[in-house]
Amino acid sequence: MLVFAASDKGGTGRSVTSANVAFRRALAGDDVAYVDFDFGSPTAAAVFDVPEAMGGVESGGLHTYLRGKAAEPVRVDVWAETEHEVLRDRPTGAGNLVLLPGDRSGGEFAVGKDVLRRCTDLFLRLNSEFDIVVVDLSAGRSFAMDMALEVTSLPELRGVGSRWLVYHRWTRQHVIAASGLVFGSRGILAGGVARGHDEEDLANRIRFVRAAVPDPEAAPWAMVPPAQSAWMRKCDQDLNELAAQRNVGYTRMLGSIPLEPVLQWREQLITDEDVLSSRVANMETLQALKDLAQALDDDEAWGPA
Amino acid sequence: MTAWGRAADPVLICGEVRTGLLQHSESLPARAVADLLRLRPDERVRISERPNGYAVSPEVLTGVDCRLPAAGGARTRVVGTVAARAVVTEGRMLQATASIVVAGPGPDVRHPWSHYLARPGVVEPLGKLPERAVADGLLAGRARPGELDLGAVAERLLARVARHRALDQRAPFKSRRTRLRWVALRALDGEGPSLDSFTLAEDGLRTVELRLPARVSPAAAAALCEDLALHDWLLTTLVRMVERSRLGSADAPEAVLSLRPAVDHLLHLWMPTAHVDRTLAPLWDVLEREPGFTRQWQTLVQRIRDQLALQAITLRRDALTAH
């Protein structure tokens, strides 16, 4: 299954959350590929702690492949190449976890017919090999997003399942922006329909993920003076109303990741050790990531909203 | 069929095979396979049904003018065409091979293209050809920019077939492709064919070194290597499936069920040398002794069948006690 990770704005935790979801699925025994289509600023290697691919690879990455300068893009076996001390010991029963990095000086580029064909071949190949293929797209409307919409509309890919995750932070501006990215006149749905997707079918394959969501009832927010606490509860309630109005409400939400100090400080994978032994990360975060990972192919969470 | 005797003075044949599962929910019927492999309108797809379903596409040619990779950094420029073909076995396995016949010392200047086009699948060097260094260079690592990359040619052909609309892309299980790179030097006069090495390198790459008498055609060499690659893929894939299933662990019914795709789609594909030239078939015996391909395959298959039988007995007993 192809899982496209999109967001309207940067800083939504799209890459770091998607990487954590990929990591969770691999731990559960799936073969997972993480494709870094964030052509402007490839960050996935930093999250997976793979130094050679940091900020993209020197050459032979996805840009080189899509431009036709390499027959296959470079792959990084995360379990083998990571410097992360916990990840280096691949757990028994874990599936493959492979990163396909972009090129360091790649940038965005125009999508021609040849690029589309190569992207089609890439998606078909990865789908034949991996249970889950996470494709991390740049923030906002990008060439990568257009390419993803175009390729998934082709008859060659009709047998390949694809789903979209749209990340946003839990603020007014982010909720409005995420709604615009999906339902706006230049949004994913309109772009998809223009390329031959069925509107209803595509809408059923798009879900929102809230990231860095503060919980007014949990620490440290529950400790604040009553006036602040009341204000926060009101904000949360208003946001829920706004989200519902803008079609970003509960029925279209696949997951909600709590505000996590570890992720605020550093884009990284949250391991069980971070929660259970060193206790630097919160149990709620780990559980939310596990739930989101599981929801990817839970058919009850998808379909008509 | 290009015999390697057709080139001026052929020195070596080499190629790369890419092997993978055909991405379709069931095995593809012969007629659909023929459509899939019709890569050229002017030539037909060769199909045989005995002893198993087997189809070979017409050859497609790619013109090249580039350096050959060579150990020790020797620079040998060659000009000519790479021949590529796709093969489907039992409507289930897809392979693409790109290969060349390298002719002996050539002229110092390039001929007009018509010269090379008249020799499909042959490349001629400009000047001398250090054959041992080139053989080693071809078998080793990744091609550098400007060097001949047969793997890329095979990959492009495989991708072209794999995106055919007749395929529903719903294969019964996930699997990795493998790459097999091979080089055949000429056997000394009077000597028969020999398999000098078969190695498993990193990242799914296998390398094979052969010595073949002059009478063996490049197509026959390609068919032998495709056969090796096919069975190596089957073995690699089944080993991995059994490992993943955790057969023999506590949750036995689950493990056996997870192997169902192997029973449905793979176990009947094992048939070494089914389409290999009779004179080359003895090369398989080398691999049967060491590492013992069929022995390992049979052991795995037996293990799966034993577990299936045990599960069937357990289920039957449970059903009887339930009454």
Automatic annotation (TrEMBL), chain A:
Keywords assigned by UniProt, alphabetized: ATP-binding, Nucleotide-binding
InterPro entries per UniProt: P-loop_NTPase, ParA/MinD_ATPase
Protein name as it appears in the record: ParA family protein
From TrEMBL, chain B:
Entry superkingdom: Bacteria
Identification of the protein by name: Uncharacterized protein
Organism (species): Actinacidiphila acididurans
The organism's taxonomic lineage, starting at the top: Bacteria, Bacillati, Actinomycetota, Actinomycetes, Kitasatosporales
